[in-house]
Amino acid sequence: MDGAFVGTWRPHRPRGPIMAQFTSPGPKYSIPGATGFVGHSPIKSRAPAYTCRGTKPPVIGSCGPGPRYFVEPDITRTGKYVPPGAHIRGLPKINTEVTPGPSDYHTETSNKHVFKSAASHSGPHYSPSLFTPPAGPGTYTLPRLMGPNTAYTTASPCYSMKWKSKHDRFDADLSKTPGPAAFPKIEVDTYKRRAPIYTMGVQTRIGGDRTCKPGPADYCTGKVTLIKPQAPETTFGIRHSIYTTPLIVE
């Protein structure tokens, strides 16, 4: 016996973590790392990630048959090249018509286009019998020089004589004139600033459900935490593991 130890058992450091000593799920859950792209910690800034891909495989549609096939030289990217060729056909049938000869034309009138000639005016020729005799000097009249509507002279002021009016005569009946009540009344709002207008209406009914509703005293305004700062709260839990040996005092 050596001191307080009994037997051959001696306390030693455990080789690994014991699950019974932890109230949490255990060390299998770890904090996400701050490197890489997959499984990155959401509370850390993530740098841009770049991926290196391999060479793309050749496209099936772009692969040619290879050098074992011989492509004709006249085959182009737009089709087969065909050189222009002349076709030999029979002589077409010509319909012979009687055309005018050189003696049928008058060449005398073309001298004015070749040689210099005096100016001449050509126009349609009418028969003298179709013309009507022109008007003589006595047929025209000179414009008038008097009155308001003159052609080329300044018109003098014109005065007109009007008949006498029946109003305001010496024998007019003044009792037949309209009095002050005959004219409509003009609203004051027409020439002055308009005053506000109020209307008296009936009392409306209270809409909605008429059941008893909670009053202001039914609400706890001290527990509002959405728009007001909340004081820190403390909770009490198990500080140590439940498997830890408690302190025994005599």
Question: Could you please describe the fold and organization of this structure?
Answer:
Pfam families: SHIPPO-rpt. This is Outer dense fiber of sperm tails 3. It comes from Cairina moschata (Muscovy duck). InterPro entries: CIMAP (IPR051291), SHIPPO-rpt (IPR010736). The chain has 250 residues and is mostly loops. 2% of the residues lie in helices and 2% in strands. It has a two-stranded antiparallel sheet. The longest helix has 4 residues, at 111-114.
Can you give keywords for this protein?
single chain, 250 residues, little secondary structure, 2% helix, SHIPPO-rpt, CIMAP, Outer dense fiber of sperm tails 3
Low-confidence stretches: none
Rounded to the nearest angstrom, the radius of gyration is: 63 Å
Write down the secondary-structure element order.
EEH
User: Quick one: overall form?
Assistant: flat
Give the DSSP E fraction (strand runs of 2 or more residues): under 5%
Q: How large is the count of helical segments? A: 1
Supply the helix-strand structural class: little secondary structure
- What oligomeric state is this? single chain
Task: Give average pLDDT, whole number.
Answer: 76
InterPro entries: CIMAP, SHIPPO-rpt
Pfam families: SHIPPO-rpt
Protein name: Outer dense fiber of sperm tails 3
GO cellular component, one term: cytoskeleton
